[in-house]
């Protein structure tokens, strides 16, 4: 075949594990191509090896103390291996991968497959010049590693189509500063349950909720159904406590954590699922490449912005629940610091998407990339305010722009709940001042018809109320890019606080105010009834 389609061909230094790579030029178009030719007798040799190892695994199954599922691992790997031997399948995988990344990650490129010149044992793709990412000394290596992290997270947690062989030779920095990924013979596919389960486990890990993590491990296949979890919990807690030392979940060394988890398999009914073994290998390689250039690199820290983006934008019930857990924790109490942490991570993701996407960025990340910090955009609304305007106008930032967008509707509910609680914490006089600043007169006339004690409408501010007010103040300061007025002597001026808050919601004022007042009226009315008649 080579004589008919190639004008020139030469042996290269590039050798695949199962074949040899040649550099050629197509006769018809003159394009440079890479031609991978499978080595002879590979299928027969490896099939015999797998048969022997699998039979050994069947013998090991008789010994309960051996927790490693050798048979399952061989079956998983063998299925992928036989797919890897089919170069037609590899070419199709590369084409599918390129299509998945094209819109959201144009910084990631894949060699073009020539299906008309590809067979089961010969793969023809476009030739890509470049150098191994792990050996490059260019200034943009760090940013390309981050692109690689986003790329693999997108595969792992979004598309479920996972390139499971990212060794250093398969990650190339091109002359124009892009990340080229090679060799799509070894690909694994993840279910929605597995993808969502991993995100839930990460959320629980960040909050050190080890009880929940153990249950996550059951769902993910690390622990068999029906096993008593009590003996495993303290062991896992110790492993995670060690991993979280020195900076929390974001500074975890993934390879060390994986090694510690593997040790548990010798003493407890705990195993690394075959699909996850491939993930560990892939992420471990990526982490290793990054650590060469940056000893402080932490995979979870780099991954968190992408995870925050998934939590904020995915509409699946499981991820909506995970988002609420991330903000409220298992206590069910709103935590402003967690809210800000998620939103800052989201802003970091948007910044990375905008800076790395280039002019051709499209799709989901383009939509998010359009959200950004607008330093000169005043968001002060046009309607008259009874209370004087702040000296400094509120500035828009990416987190605020997201909350005001249609995609931020679910997350906005969290803020509305806290706004209502904060307003309810003030006296009726303060409530009327705030209402008049909206241009609303007599917002809750029903109270005038109810014979109630004055104390029911003029409640004292409790410690819980102060926590709520402080939470709202932190959120307002964050959303307004730090322009909110500071409190004096630690006391929260609620009228000023709400005055600061309202200007950051102008584009949806007509939708927000009725909702706030409706919830507020219901909350205050319920409190009046409770304190007056019960």
UniProtKB/TrEMBL annotation:
Q: Give the highest taxon in the source lineage.
A: Eukaryota
Give the species this sequence originates from. Answer: Triticum turgidum subsp. durum (Durum wheat)
User: For this protein, what is any one GO molecular function term?
Assistant: protein kinase activity
Member of which family?
Belongs to the protein kinase superfamily. ADCK protein kinase family.
PANTHER family found in the cross-reference section: CHAPERONE-ACTIVITY OF BC1 COMPLEX CABC1 -RELATED, UNUSUAL PROTEIN KINASE-RELATED
In the UniProt record, which is one GO cellular component term?
Answer: chloroplast
What InterPro entries has UniProt attached to this entry? ABC1_dom, Kinase-like_dom_sf, Prot_kinase_dom, UbiB_kinase
The residue ranges of the Protein kinase domain are 7-340
Please identify the protein, giving its name as recorded. Answer: Protein kinase domain-containing protein
């Amino acid at each position: 075949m080579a004589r008919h389609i190639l004008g020139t061909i030469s042996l290269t230094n590039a050798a695949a594990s199962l074949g040899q790579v040649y550099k050629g030029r197509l006769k018809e178009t003159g394009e440079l191509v890479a031609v991978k030719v499978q080595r002879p007798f590979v299928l027969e040799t490896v099939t015999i090896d797998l048969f022997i190892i699998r039979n050994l695994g069947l013998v090991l199954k008789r010994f309960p103390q051996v927790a490693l599922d050798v048979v399952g691992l061989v079956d998983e790997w063998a299925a992928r291996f036989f797919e890897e031997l089919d170069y037609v399948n590899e070419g199709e995988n590369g084409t599918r991968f390129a299509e998945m990344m094209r819109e959201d990650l144009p910084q990631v490129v894949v060699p073009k497959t020539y299906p008309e010149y590809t067979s089961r044992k010969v793969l023809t793709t476009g030739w890509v010049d470049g150098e191994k990412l792990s050996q490059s000394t260019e200034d943009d290596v760090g940013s390309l590693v981050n692109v690689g992290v986003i790329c693999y997270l997108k595969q792992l947690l979004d598309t479920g189509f996972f390139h499971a062989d990212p060794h250093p030779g398969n990650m190339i920095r091109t002359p124009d500063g892009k990340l080229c990924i090679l060799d799509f013979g070894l690909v694994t596919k993840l279910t929605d349950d597995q993808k969502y389960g991993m995100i839930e486990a990460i959320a629980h890990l960040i909050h050190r909720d080890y009880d929940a993590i153990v249950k996550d491990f059951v769902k993910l296949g690390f622990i068999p159904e029906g096993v008593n979890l009590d003996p495993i919990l303290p062991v896992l807690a110790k492993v995670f406590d060690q991993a979280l030392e020195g900076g929390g979940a974001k500074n975890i060394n993934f390879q060390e954590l994986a090694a510690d988890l593997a040790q548990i398999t010798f003493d407890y009914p705990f195993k690394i699922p075959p699909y996850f073994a491939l993930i560990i290998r892939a992420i471990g390689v990526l982490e290793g490449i990054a650590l060469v250039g940056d000893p402080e690199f932490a995979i979870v820290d780099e991954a968190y912005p992408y995870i925050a983006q998934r939590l904020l934008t995915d509409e699946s019930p499981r991820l909506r629940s995970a988002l609420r857990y991330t903000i409220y924790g298992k206590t069910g109490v709103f935590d402003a610091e967690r809210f800000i942490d998620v939103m800052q991570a989201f802003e970091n993701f948007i910044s990375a998407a905008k800076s790395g996407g280039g002019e051709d960025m499209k799709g989901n990340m383009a939509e998010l990339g359009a959200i950004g910090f607008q330093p000169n955009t005043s968001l002060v609304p046009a309607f008259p305010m009874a209370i004087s305007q702040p000296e400094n106008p509120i500035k828009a930032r990416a987190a605020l722009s997201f909350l005001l967008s249609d995609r931020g509707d679910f997350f906005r509910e969290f803020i509305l709940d806290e706004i209502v609680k904060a307003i309810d914490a003030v006296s009726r006089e303060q409530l009327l001042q705030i209402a008049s600043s909206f241009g609303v007169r007599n917002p809750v006339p029903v109270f005038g018809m109810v014979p109630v004690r004055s104390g029911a409408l003029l409640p004292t501010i409790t410690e819980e109320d102060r926590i709520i007010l402080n939470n709202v103040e932190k959120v307002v300061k964050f959303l307004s890019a730090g322009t909110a007025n500071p409190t004096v002597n630690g006391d929260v001026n609620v009228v000023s606080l709400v005055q600061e808050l309202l200007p950051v919601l102008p584009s949806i004022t007509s939708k927000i105010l009725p909702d706030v007042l409706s919830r507020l009226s219901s909350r205050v009315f319920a409190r009046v009834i409770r304190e007056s008649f019960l």
